[in-house]
Amino acid sequence: MQGVTQGLLTVKASQRFVIVAAEFNKWITSQLELGAREELCKLGAGPSQITTLWTPGSFEIPTVAMAVAKKGGVSAIICLGCIIRGQTAHFDHVASAATSGIAAVGPTTGVPAIFGIIAADTQEQAMDRAGLKMGNTGSHSARAAVHMANLMAEIVEGSRK
User: Which one of 90, 93, 140, 147 is the catalytic residue?
Assistant: First the structure.
C-alpha cells in the first residue's frame, strides 16, 4: 500500500452484501431497505449479490449482523432500522444497544458493518431520512458499504504484496 488508498464505489462480481433490517417501523425500514438495494444495483451489484434478513427490531440487528460476519463470505453488512423516541426510556436503551452492538461487528470480525439506523425524535424526522427530504439513509449506507468493502479488500490484498 502506497500513496492514497480510497475505497472505490463499484461493486465487484465477487462481492456479496447482506442487509439486516428491522421489521419494527417497517413503513420506514422498507424504504431504507429499498434504497440500499437500489443503490447497490446502481453501483454494479446483481440481485444474487444482495441478501436481506429481517429482524423483529433494531435491538436484534447486532446479533444477526455478528452471526453473518462470523459465518463469512460477505463483503459488508448494512444495518437498517428506525427508532422513534416515545415517552419512556425505551428509545435510549434500544438506540444504545443497537449502536454499540453494530460498532463491535467490524473490529471483532474484520467485516464492515454499516450503521444505517435512524434514531429520530418524531415520525416526520424519520420519514425525512427515509427519502422524503434528506435523502435515503439506506442508500447512503449502501454507498458506505461498497466503499468500505473495497477499502478493506485493498488493505488485505495490499498486505499480501
Answer: 90
